[in-house]
## 1
Amino acid sequence: MTTVHAAIQFDAQARPAGGGLFSLHFWLSLPAGPAIAQPALLPFMAFELRARSGAQLLVLQQPDWALPQQATTLRLAPGTPLELSPPLRLHFADPAWPAPAAGSSLVWTVPAPQAGVRIRVQLLLPEPLFLAAPLRFD
């Protein structure tokens, strides 16, 4: 499912990364209109995840991370999707999956098994890129 804000489309996907972990991938696309340029830092970490199981809000375990970041400009041009892939991995607290390595600052843990959990991604960028979408698992 894609969220559209103005003319910008935002899609968020989690892909299996092995060892019970998921990598995150975000796509922004602009079907038409003027190009957008937005200052940002890479690796891209300007987002938050909101997880729910039923009506219960789940608090993700997000260890502090320390990565050097470099200033850049995100450029979104009509007809050219922009992919943002944060370096972190997502893990579910499921007895069937191995626990992440101790001290891994780039693994965020959802304190529940994956079944029944819904996650929403919120980009933490200024308008018009302050967008949200459900996280799809493929």
## 2
Amino acid sequence: LCCFWSTACASAAARLHGGWRIGAISGRCDARLGAGDPAAALETYALAVKVKRPWPMTRRAVLAYRQAGDELAADTLLARHVGGEPNLPSALFALAERQAEQGEWGRAALLLDHAMALGGAHDPALLTLRLRAARALDDAGDVRRFAAMLAEVRPLLLTRP
């Protein structure tokens, strides 16, 4: 069955170039990933990205690589996506999270600053990570600035206890 779908997906990808077609192919990828077969999912993702590589598909392929135990491939794919689409705040944030996990706080801060410049400055998760980066980099001015920004965007409790 795996070979059948791979052949069918390759054939569809070669003939058709619409978003809904990629959605159908990526649905098969998601089903394989959900069934616990990251290798088969990656095989199908590879066929689909020959036509188009949207961020949602890249994000799922990164997850599949991580589930398959290939952190290097996941990190490489994520970095390449950001390199090819550098103005997507959610992709920048995902790469910044990975950089932070690896202790690369300076790189994480640069990615987060770029994501904020693109409109991500109202995202509490992004600001929280940027605040952590400022603390890790021992930058008191940035700590104050990002703590204040985070306080402005963090939702208040709707009811009082």
## 3
Amino acid sequence: MIKSIYRFVLLLLLTSGLLACKQDSLEGGDSHNGERSFECGSVSVEDGKSLSESELCFRLVSIEEGGDDEGSPMGYWESLKTYPKIYGAIDPAVKLNVNNSIVALANRYACDELGDYSFSSDVGYFDENLLSLSYEVMWMCSAMPSPDSTVGALVINLITGAPVILEGEFMDASSREMFYSDVANKMKGNLEGESYCSGLANNKGGFDFYYKAKNTLAFISNVDRHSDSGCIDRVEYTVTAMRKYLNSGSVLLSD
């Protein structure tokens, strides 16, 4: 009986979003603070026919599913996924690849069987060359005693349709090593106040993922996301500061 009540409360937290794993440290710049907003206005989510072919934009799409199941303490399972979809003037093959990559990410942690699932994302940066989004995902499959969760980011080149791998954006090996050393030292310094977190950071020696916001690049250390220690931390660099490390033509240097 106690276990059923416990799972019921956890499910309520999961579906309401109160069990958010994307803490304040994941909040980046506002993608709409520039001179131009790239979020689509009134569009048909199904086919985008109301969009001009000369307009590049994105729209957040929400997919909600669910069904009855006696194995759930609540009698049913629910799934809610919210993610951006690209419309407008972009190479059709690239657009298809980008949108498929986002959908694949949104489904990556879904249960093979029935289960509660919540995927939400935030677009930190979007222009003709680059899409950067951070996400949080929570899931509870039928055989699990409690929910699981994770956070991350996806940065995609809208010219090629490929993910922007940070390793390939540095000027040379020396610049790469200088940057990794600097960000690791800053990360450990940020976690010094908590000896437990600091120990984990020293063992990992760096960050887990990065994403781009309006005028910054954020590097996130998710050293212990499965406890209440609050060890997630971040280091931010301005685009100007990153110019001494990255290739001059890197799409990450857009501002």
## 4
Amino acid sequence: MLNFSFKRPLMLLLLGFIGCAGLYASLKVTIHFFGPDADITLPENLWSGLHAYGWGFLKDYNFAPDNWLLSLVPLHFLVYWIFGLNPEGIVVLGWLFFVGNAVLCGLIAKTLGARKTAIFLPLFLLFCGRYAYAPGFASYALSHNGTNLYGLLILLCSVQWIKNRRIGFLSLVLLLSIVAGVSDPWLMATYLLPIGLTALLALCVCKEEGQRRPYAMLFAAIVLAGWVIKTQCFGLLSFVPSFRFHLAPLSLFPVHAYYFVKCLGGLFF
């Protein structure tokens, strides 16, 4: 049997090898499935239009509700400024979003106390199957997966706020929620609503005032962010179309559940 002093370095070496293999494999698959897409032309159109016509071009552009103006477009502009209008930079940016999501899942697990899971979860996610890259757009630089990066950051900051009570984390929850929510309404249904309802439930269940206060402040931050999003940043982004969510009828719930299980399974095959 191996001496205990050799087990830890050996395990770290093995995890490092698996991590490097996962990074390499995910980058190769990202490059393979990258292709033209209507959404991915948005930042390039805005970049060219702003240079040609100035800031007034924004009000003339025909945006969709998921516009990514404050969340993802600035990151694309940074890539264009450094590397020019080259597809290679956008491919790498999308891959970094994918890797960032995997790392954030591990950090959330670690914050919740699941230290072993925190090590293996990012490695596991790096080896997602073809479905995540092709129909799932998991590595596209301009997709809901970029918003997912913001959502996981908001979730991580929410957990950190509840655990450590540092106002900086709560401020980040508010700021990131507004930036990502104005840019993509999908964030409200997938992250802000569940986090807000969880905070409200914890507020109702907790009896001690000291435990209730952080949940109350988190709930207030989510509500405030939702209000700012609905006002489109107090009218500053009024040229972007608004979006209203509607609760699906109960008859569609089984259909949605079926596709949820199907898509979840497709991520790893």
